Fold these 2 entries.
Entry 1:
Amino acid sequence: MSVMLSASGLSRRFGGIQAVSNMGLEVATGSITGLIGPNGAGKSTLFNLLSGVIRPQAGKVLYKGQDVTRLAPYKRARLGMIRTFQLSREFGRLTVLENLMLSPQQQLGEQLFPLFSKSRAVAQADDVVYERALEVMEIAALTDLRDKYAADLSGGQKKLLELARTLMIDCDLILLDEPGAGVNPALMGTLMDMIRRLNTDYGKTFLIVEHDMDLIGKLCDPVVVMTEGSFLSAGPFDDIREDPRVIEAYLGGVLLD
Ligand SMILES: Nc1ncnc2c1ncn2[C@@H]1O[C@H](COP(=O)(O)OP(=O)(O)O)[C@@H](O)[C@H]1O
Ligand SMILES: [Mg+2]
């Protein structure tokens, strides 16, 4: 088994709150690894440490064996490790196709210059980018929505577009923070199919932080559980859900049914 991402000894405090404490985890190449834990367990903080949005006070993050602990998110993205970013208001004024055809820098949320007009997006585009956008829209089931403004998409369609944007950049590891949040049940299947297909047909490795146990159970293996900022357990979902320590950690929170 080869390891694509590994973190060890990660710690991050906010004032008096130890959000993440000596946390470690491994994401195997080719896996869809899930990360769960009760509210306040430190999942989002860990996610931000792994993607580079915030820095740890201690610990290390290795991507394909390279120390990326202090690298900015866009630099990690250039190495092939990418996280989704929420569509900002400016992106809402562009169509689905235009969103995909923007430069990688803008897709990474690294806006060096204000996005003042659509023609900017189009001017930057060449045939290769256009062809790729068509292919990506097909994968993401967005082809029929290509001329729709991103702002007018449903919550689930926006998630598909956010995920689709990552595919415009060459990447091997995709980090998703709650991809299922705000997605209606009808689109949930489409979203899960897309993730599965990107994994099996396109070889993408995933780390997914998610509340929705249905998504976790159907897509993720292994599932890593954290509680109170630290590693609790990891394994197949069916084992995890029966682990007494996991059940105890969730008591008073969302129970695994
Ligand atoms: N920027 C921040 N400032 C202060 N406290 C924070 C900040 N981010 C997270 N926390 C705290 O750290 C703990 C872990 O939060 P978080 O990582 O969001 O957990 P989860 O995503 O598992 O619900 C919580 O107690 C939360 O209130
Ligand atoms: Mg969170």
Entry 2:
Amino acid sequence: MWPRTLHVELDERSYPIQIGEGLLQQAATLLQDVGILPGRSLFIVTDENVAPLYLSPLVSQLETAGYRVASCVIEAGEQSKSLAVYERVMTASIEAGLDRKSALLALGGGVVGDLAGFVAATFMRGIDFVQVPTTLLAHDSSVGGKVAINHPLGKNLIGAFHQPRMVLYDTAALRSLPKREVAAGFAEVIKHGLISDERFVTWLEEHADELWQLHSEYVAEAIQRGCAVKAAIVSADETEQGMRALLNLGHTFGHAFEALSDYARLNHGEAISIGMCLAAKTAERMGLADRGVYERTARVLRRFHLPTEWPKPFDPIQVLTVMKRDKKTVSGKLALVLPRAIGRVELVKEIEESLILEIMREEWGK
Ligand SMILES: NC(=O)c1ccc[n+]([C@@H]2O[C@H](COP(=O)([O-])OP(=O)(O)OC[C@H]3O[C@@H](n4cnc5c(N)ncnc54)[C@H](O)[C@@H]3O)[C@@H](O)[C@H]2O)c1
Ligand SMILES: [Zn+2]
């Protein structure tokens, strides 16, 4: 199968996203295509779940092609996006003898991508970086150049914009993913449809079974279309001055649920799935969206085994308090990305808190 290629247009920082079945086996050739040539040293960052599955064949292939390769395996999970693990990876990079011409490969999900990307952004003021995502959710995190680690006081507070030289997406790697992670990834895929492409949502509904079974042709198309929505928005607004906020559909509610569950009970995809339903309800109640937008939003999310109901026992007041810490809040006034229709959203400022509370209380009381 030929890879599907999508270009993220960012002038001299433009890069390709290559998507296809078995693409990891072509890593050496694809690196050369973007000018990362044999002889250079490569440093692969991955986690303890991904390493036993995909690391050693990748290392052998790259060494055979003439690269010098070193690697570092971090613990799996959000807690690795920390200053301590950042320092450990930095130390390993220095000890491996990396220099300005070296390239760093992030082999894993969004955690590895965000952490390794931040190492690449800051090692000797920035070295080349290639994203090799192995989760479906990472179709979102690997595009756009946002890289970050967490501070004990908040998520992604320490970070940078650092665009990769390439994204290399092997759809075969998704088959080892736990189903709960597959569902979480589909939450972001669906989000990309709900933001800007009604036909994409229809296509997701029509092919939900094949997609859930991870048929490679369908999954590759879903990733390509999801990445295309994100890439178009990022190209128009690389450093999040305006339009990029639209990618936050469902995220203001979702981040509050994640924070209140200590990033444990609900994963990111599950939290934003419920968040997108609440956003649709809010939009209908405000008369911004036609009736039926909520129903269809919830239906497509359920097809991908995602939760759509209020996560008990969260208290609406607590949720609202956390929501107001969101970056979109200006002068204490809540702003939310809300749907006008399926495939069309807008940033609505100065939302009435009483309305949000009312909707949340109804959900809570159900
Ligand atoms: N930078 C961005 O723009 C952006 C956007 C969205 C999310 N994110 C970040 O992404 C992170 C979440 O990413 P994620 O959901 O990919 O989480 P993750 O990286 O923690 O991966 C989820 C789990 O799946 C395992 N795993 C990964 N690939 C596997 C495979 N092929 N087979 C078996 N197991 C595998 C991992 O070890 C982990 O346990 C969060 O930290 C979030 O902040 C960043
Ligand atoms: Zn997200």
